[in-house]
Every structure is written in structure tokens, then in C-alpha cells.
Write a structure and sequence with these properties.
Elements (H helix, E strand, L loop, with lengths): L5 E2 L3 E5 L5 H7 L18 H10 L3 E8 L5 E12 L5 E11 L8 H17 L3 E7 L3 H9 L3 E11 L9 E10 L3 H17 L1
Parallel strand pairs: 5-6
Antiparallel strand pairs: 1-2, 2-3, 3-4, 4-5, 6-8, 7-8
């Protein structure tokens, strides 16, 4: 999949580069209380995580840049692609997403999801987008449903836990999705949500 910068009036998503490490470290330098069950690097590990992500295949990470300040405020990515027999993408996941505490609750997440979903459905032409989270992460689950994704169930013992202190343990994963047929309605709902965030 060809990855390009995506932007609107609220956020710019730039494909991750090595020189983004310092900006990510700065975005991570603060309270971690709001990250909950989300696996998030520390300022000290940001450079190593960037190098690791750039070395992975079938993983397309972005930094999230607040258009108002010009500063990096988070990270997101496309990952876990599934393909048609001829190699075209059939489905993709949006995940590995975090925002620093100051950017949480703002319009940035809705704006970024709008960009990523529109690119996946309208440019790449996928049939489905997956969004998943630790089943214990009620805040993340509510946010995924709020953008218009459908909850499909909990996959038990689905993947290694990324929660702090749970190295070597597995987690249950709450699976959500949006299909191509649903996308026009989801897009309208997400655009209305973004407008409310900007007006409020």
C-alpha cells in the first residue's frame, strides 16, 4: 500500500520517519495516567520504537500533528492487512493509536479517523476496516463505537497484552469493524461528530 500524508484543517498525518522520534518523545513527556491499557512508548524508548516500526513489513505508521500548534501529539497506523488472492488489499486495521493527554478529548482523534477511514475506503478501496482494543479498555471501546464502528465481540486470549506490567501475558480483545457498505453513513456520522467537537 502506498502511504502518503493525509491532512484536514485539524490534523496532519505524516508517514513516520526517523526524524519524528524527538517530536514523539516530547509528546510522551508528561502524565501517562490517561493511557490506561494502551501500549504506549516512553520518551526514553521513542527512538527505538520508531526504528522498530520502520523495519516492520505490512505496517504503515503515522505521526499525528496538531495543525493549530504544528506539534506532534500522537501516533496511529494501518496494520494487519488482509488481501485478495491477487494481492489487492481486502481489509486493514487502524490501530497502534495514542494521543498525549492534552490532545485527548479534542477534535484530533475524530479528524484523524476521518482521514484514515476515507483513505482506506475511497482511495485504497478496502471492503472492511478493523478497530480493536483491550477488552478492559472501556474508554477506547466507547470511542470506537462513537465514531460509528460496530462491536463484533470479544476474542478471548487473542494477542499479547501491551499493558504496563503485563509482559508475557495475553489479553482478551474487543473487535469492531466498519464495512464499505456502511462507510457512507459512518462518514456522515463522523463528520457531524467532528463538527460538534469543533463547535464545542
Amino acid at each position: 500500500m502506498r502511504v502518503v500524508a493525509l491532512e484536514n484543517a485539524v490534523v496532519r498525518l505524516e508517514p513516520l520517519r526517523p526524524d519524528h522520534a524527538a517530536g514523539l518523545a516530547a509528546a510522551l513527556d508528561g502524565s501517562r495516567d490517561s493511557f490506561g491499557w494502551t501500549p504506549v512508548p516512553t520518551p526514553q524508548t521513542a527512538e527505538a520504537v520508531v526504528a522498530e516500526e520502520l523495519a516492520r513489513g505490512d505496517f504503515w505508521p503515522f505521526v499525528q500533528i496538531d495543525r493549530a500548534s504544528g506539534e506532534i501529539v500522537g501516533h496511529t497506523s494501518y496494520l494487519t492487512p488482509r488481501r485478495w488472492p491477487d494481492g489487492r488489499l481486502f481489509a486493514i486495521e487502524i490501530g497502534s493509536t495514542w494521543l498525549n493527554a492534552a490532545a485527548q478529548g479534542t477534535a484530533i482523534n475524530s479528524a484523524a479517523k476521518l482521514l484514515l477511514l476515507a483513505h482506506a475506503f475511497e482511495t485504497v478501496g478496502v471492503e472492511r476496516v478493523d478497530l480493536k482494543t483491550d477488552a478492559r479498555n472501556e474508554r477506547s471501546r466507547a470511542g470506537i463505537v462513537a465514531i460509528g464502528a460496530t462491536f463484533e465481540g470479544v476474542l478471548r486470549g487473542w494477542q499479547p497484552s501491551g499493558a504496563p506490567g503485563e509482559e508475557g501475558r495475553v489479553r482478551d480483545t474487543a473487535m469492531h469493524s466498519i464495512t464499505a457498505a456502511e462507510w457512507p453513513d459512518v462518514r456522515a456520522r463522523l463528520e457531524a461528530r467532528l463538527a460538534r467537537k469543533l463547535a464545542g
